Amino acid sequence: MTENQENTVVVMETSMGTVEIELDAANAPKTVANILAYVDEGFYDGTIYHRVIPEFMIQGGGFAADMQQKITRDPVGNEAANGLKNKRGTLAMARTNDPHSASSQFFINHKDNDFLDFRAATADGYGYCVFGQVIDGMDVVDEIAQVATGQSGPHSDVPQEPVVIKSVRRK
After folding, report:
1. Cα separation of 129 and 27, whole Å?
2. CB within 8 A of 3, min separation 6: which ones?
3. Three-state DSSP class for 118?
4. What predicted TM-score, i.e. pTM, was given to this entire model?
5. pLDDT tens-place string over residues 131-158
6. CA 91, CA 21: separation in Å to the nearest integer?
7. In a designed cystine with 25, which of 32, 107, 116, 127 is the match (CB 3.0 to 4.6 A)?
8. Residues 43, 45, 46, 50: is their CA dihedral positive or negative?
């Protein structure tokens, strides 16, 4: 992805610092429209990174600080066959085992995760749709990836001290 005038940049203010993200609407139009709808309504304000695994990824965008899941809109179709790869610093949609179940949750790849890339239009091969890339603040992502984690109810890899997404706004 290269920054161009068609791609929107969003600024994510977290409790650990600022991350700037370029969204790739050319390759993931439905996904980016979905994310921007959540951004524009302030949905991400006060959510947390609820799943942090160093040398893998940090996941957020769906839970409040008390680990209550937020209500989302309908899922967006999986655009993982867009040619974009789950490389370090890219953002991809989180989902359940259903390839077309992504709604508001996303993750930032902490390293290259080729095994998450699209391989085939099957349940096992669909992969995870990359829709953006960190263009500034990867040091913040690295810091978040190193926080102490533990169990919170049924959830594992939860930061012991909440990492809050204070806001996400268009730049």
Report:
1. 10
2. 9, 22, 135
3. coil
4. 0.95
5. 999 999 999 999 999 999 999 999 999 9
6. 8
7. 32
8. positive
Distances (CA, A) of 166 to 19, 84, 153: 11, 28, 24
Question: What does the chain come to in residues?
Answer: 171
Tokens 């091969």 belong to 125
Give the CA distances from residue 73 to residues 6, 88, 102, 103, in Å, rounded to whole numbers and listed in that order: 25, 28, 10, 7
Residue 43 in 3-state DSSP? coil
Beta bridge partners of 130: 92
In Å, what is the CA distance from 23 to each residue of 7, 36, 70? 6, 9, 23
Phi, psi for 28 (deg, rounded to 5):
-140, 60
Question: What is the distance between the alpha carbons of residues 3 and 24, in angstroms, rounded to a whole number?
Answer: 9
User: Could you give the C-alpha distances from 116 to 8, 84, 166, in angstroms and in order?
Assistant: 24, 11, 28
* Interatomic CA distance for residues 75 and 99, integer angstroms: 10
Alpha-carbon distances of 159 from 34, 58, 66, 111, 137, rounded to whole Å: 27, 10, 12, 19, 19
For the chain, the C-alpha Rg in angstroms (whole number) is 15
**What pLDDT, on the 0 to 100 scale, is given for residue 2?**
45
